[in-house]
Amino acid sequence: MKAKHASDTAGYTSAMRAIANLAPKAEKYLDDSFSVEFLPFPWFLTKPLFLARLFDPVIYSVGMKTPDKLVGFPGMTALACLRHRYIDDQILNAYKTGTRRFILLGAGYDTRSLRLQLPEATIVEVDHPDTQKRKKEILKRRHLQPNCKLEFIAIDFSKPWAETLLSHPYIKDTSTQTTMVIWEGVCCYLQESEALHTIGAARQLLQAGGTLVFDAFSAELLNEGTSVDILRKMRSFVEKKGEPFRWAEDEIPIREIITAHDFKEVDAVSIYDVAADLSEKENLDISKDEILKYLGMYCCRV
Ligand SMILES: C[S@@+](CC[C@H](N)C(=O)[O-])C[C@H]1O[C@@H](n2cnc3c(N)ncnc32)[C@H](O)[C@@H]1O
Prior knowledge:
Layout: H1 8-20, H2 47-52, H3 56-71, H4 76-96, E1 101-105, H5 112-115, E2 122-127, H6 129-141, E3 149-154, H7 162-166, H8 169-172, E4 179-183, H9 192-205, E5 210-217, H10 229-240, H11 251-260, E6 265-270, H12 271-282, E7 295-301
Parallel strand pairs: 1-2, 1-4, 2-3, 4-5
Antiparallel strand pairs: 5-7, 6-7
Helix pairs in contact: 1-4
The structure holds S-adenosylmethionine.
C-alpha cells in the first residue's frame, strides 16, 4: 500500500458493490446500500447520482462494464461482488448455526456490520491503520450505526502481527468462541510468507472451532509469461496503484497448505460455481461471460 494512504483497492471494491446494488431485480444478488458512502475520490463526486435512484439502470449498465473495460479487465466487478455475496451467505449460515464472532482480516470498507442482521454477533475488523482511519471517519461523519457489536484493530500485515492480534483484548478474552475468519480480497497483495503466516494465525483464532473463508486468484495471475492479456493488465493496474499482486495459487496447492495447517475440511468453489449456484437458487440472470474467471473461494473448517 502507498505510505500514509488508505487502500485504493478497498475503495474500488466498495464502488463495485455500490454499482451492483443498483442491479435490476433479475440480476440482483447483492444488497448493499451503504457502500456508496465509501466511494474513493473522484468517484464520491457521483454519489448524488447514486442517491437519486432515477439513474439506477444507467449507472448500473455503464458501471458494470465501462470501468472494467477502461482498465482492460472486464468481469472484475462481477467477480468482486459475487465473491462478496458468497461470503455474506457463509456468514449468515454460520450465524444461524451459532457462530457469534466474525473476524475480518483486511476489512476495508466492508459494510456487513451495517447491513446484515447479526444482532448477537461481534464483528472485529482488522485492517491497515490508514484504511481503517478513513473508514472510521466516514462512519462517524455519516452517523452510521452497526447492527451488531463492532470492534476495530489496526494492524499492518507486512510486519510481524499475529502475536499482536492474538493477544489483543478483543481476541484474547474470547478465545473460547466459535469463530469465522474472513479474509476477502487481501491475500493477493501479500508475499507468500505473509499469506502463510496469516493462515497460521487464522488457525490459532479458530482454536475453539469455526471456519476460515477466503479467496485466491489462480496461479496464472503471477505467471510472467502468461498469454492471458487480461491478467497482465490487472497486474500492471494494481502495481501502478502501489498495491501489486504478490500471491496467487491454484486449488490443489491451496488444499495442501490448508491441510498442513491442521484444518479438517476444505470446500473449494470457483467464482463461476458461485454464479451458477445463485442463478439456479434465486432464478437470476448472471452471465458467465461477464465474470472474470480466475478466482477460487475456500471455506476451511477446523
Ligand atoms: C482489495 S481491499 C479488500 C477490502 C475488503 N476485504 C473488501 O473485500 O472490500 C484490500 C484490503 O487489504 C488491506 N491491506 C492490504 N495490505 C495490507 C497490509 N500490509 N496490512 C494490513 N492491511 C492491508 C487494505 O487496507 C484493504 O482494506
